[in-house]
Amino acid sequence: MVDQTSNINDLEWAKDYTKVPFRVYTDETFYRQEQELIFRGKTWSFVALEAELPEAFSYKSTFIGDVPVVVTRDANDDFHVWVNRCSHRGAEICRSRHGKSEDGAFTCVYHQWTFDASGECKGVPFRKGHQGKGGYQKDFKTSDHPLQRLRVETFAGLVFASFVEQGSSLSEFLGPEMVQGMKRVLCKPLVYLGVTRQYVNANWKLYTENTKDPYHASLLHLFHATFGVYRSTMGGGCLVGGPHGMHSLLSAYTIENEDKAEYEKGDLRSYDTGVSLADTSVLKVIPELEPVFTNHIQSIFPSMILQQIHNTLAVRQILPKGVDKFELIFHFFGYQDDTPEMQAARIRQMNLVGPAGYISMEDGEATELVQNAITGDPDHHSFMGMGKPGCDSEEDTLLTEALLRSYWRGYRQFMGRDEMKV
Length: 422
Ligand code: FES
Ligand SMILES: [Fe+2]
Hints:
Elements: E1 19-21, H1 28-39, E2 45-49, E3 58-64, E4 67-73, E5 79-83, E6 98-100, E7 106-107, E8 114-115, E9 121-123, E10 151-155, E11 158-162, H2 170-185, E12 190-200, H3 204-210, H4 214-220, H5 222-226, E13 235-241, E14 247-253, H6 261-264, E15 295-300, E16 304-309, E17 312-320, E18 326-335, H7 340-349, H8 361-374, E19 381-383, H9 402-415
The protein binds FE2/S2 (inorganic) cluster and fe (ii) ion.
């Protein structure tokens, strides 16, 4: 039993990566380490869709881990990300989620220091004092007081930021497998369709696990299995990618002559032939992306998921809010060249996901079920032994926990403070 340990690798793990100690979801010490080593470490975090900031001086406030950040678009259509913390005395500058600065300035309400879209300090009230008294010293320069600016890169309509000044490019961080998968969905200019937000009382990594877990999807979700959106007997597979195998792509597609015997035996709660929909329009799929997948769930470490389920497209964002709480955001999008019929189908199919989605509703609940059960006595562990032993991609089955094992192996490398080139 481990008590008050500060090194993740002192916990009891299994050599074959099939055990995860529950303390990783409950311990404040590890939560704080994650903020430093993961969110402010050698990673790139998704912060916005370009389409969320449609014009010059549009802005959006969000978080990278626990740190509030602001994303802006400048007059040259370049994107900037800065920490939402005034360089004077630390006040939050931007106090709304979205908007547009009419004059391109971002002014802190406390003493009205003013910054431009790139985070450069442009003005300080009473800088020279009043009638020769007070004010800052002669050598004071506004240029010495920018906001904390992060590295920014865009990829196919998405904006990412990193706290690390030197290091891998975004495409190196994503890796070729994930770049290829993302391009499948992010293949055309995007339009932003809307957002849902929810709070879940569980550790953020439990939701990450959920998006790498094809096993649960057809068992937890009655809607998935019953209406054929996803079953483990469909075609599909799991691909690992990125630094230390932290990213993943889980894809499923319909196959002819699918063997549904396991479902039809009648002992799976989630396959119910007695259930039907009065209005089946939500199930109407308009064929589009190649290769044709019913489900494309791409988990990009640390906190983004790119999702295509039928015609509904979204970027999910996981924002940790303490060791046992996270905010889950679905950013829905379509393509600029969508027909009105296609856009209507995407909006209708949003009903599948989000906080009250026919499918996703249960995912938040499942993560809370785990958190509830482990918090009181976290000196136990989960078991994730399904599929071929090891952490490699399994491209021909959905009945595997390989993506989870790969994730946890990589997590230990990030958190173990090993020197890593990522
Ligand atoms: S804290 Fe922002 S201007 Fe003083
Ligand atoms: Fe799920």
